[in-house]
Amino acid sequence: MQHSVLITGAASGIGLGIAKHLGASHKLILTDMNEDALQQAQQTLAELNIHCQTHVLNVTSQTDIDNLVASLEQPVDTLINNAGIQHVSPLEDFPMDRWQLIVDILLTGPARLTRALLPGMRNLAFGRIINIGSIHGLIASPYKSAYVAAKHGLAGFSKVLALETADTDITINTICPAYVKTPLVEKQITDQAKAHGISEEEVINNIMLEPMPKKAFINVSEIAHTVQFLMAKEACNMTGQSLVLDGGWTVR
């Protein structure tokens, strides 16, 4: 079955990796705030013979979301909430406008998009809402108060929506990977090194990978394959769940 898949934050990193994985079999709608990066992503996919629509989208803007929904050629049956940012700082030094922006993008944005696309999924009697969460939706790390709070909230939001959509074949789940080597994490390595006063290598070995028995970054392909499973009709009874890809981190 070919799905109509909308991915946020799709111009790079996890979002683009998912698009590459799904593009041969499904209709893709890529969204991102960065228009230039979005065009580059579209070109990258075209070189792989993957065609997609693109829309510049700020997930914190209801106007942007309304305009996007109005422009759709067909209902979206699969929403992948992936857009995200990060800021690393002790709470005392955390700019509150940045704190609010992180929550708006990571938590309120998925709620806005889900709310906008849910009626179309109900009309189709099928839908898959897949949130790209984080290990930090389950545990905490210092200096990431906004991110951790938002990711914990996303897991709770998914549980509520699972109950609200239980009357039809719509599911909502959250994928929770440990650290994935993306541009966002590369920046975190630098920020963490400054915050802790240590080298970037020490951040990788002593902070990021230290709690993981497998001692390895999560590969984007692992997340993409998990997305593919959640999209399947055979995943119809998996809903409201957090799927953890953490190399054994949380089993200790």
From TrEMBL:
Pfam family, one: adh_short
InterPro entries in the record: 3-OHbutyrate_DH, NAD(P)-bd_dom_sf, Sc_DH/Rdtase_CS, SDR, SDR_fam
Alphabetical list of SUPFAM superfamilies matching this protein: NAD(P)-binding Rossmann-fold domains
One BP term from GO: monocarboxylic acid metabolic process
PROSITE patterns on file: ADH_SHORT
GO molecular function term, any single one: 3-hydroxybutyrate dehydrogenase activity
Similarity-based family: Belongs to the short-chain dehydrogenases/reductases (SDR) family.
Name this polypeptide is given: 3-hydroxybutyrate dehydrogenase
Organism: Planctobacterium marinum
Classification lineage: Bacteria, Pseudomonadati, Pseudomonadota, Gammaproteobacteria, Alteromonadales
Gene that produces this protein: hbdH1
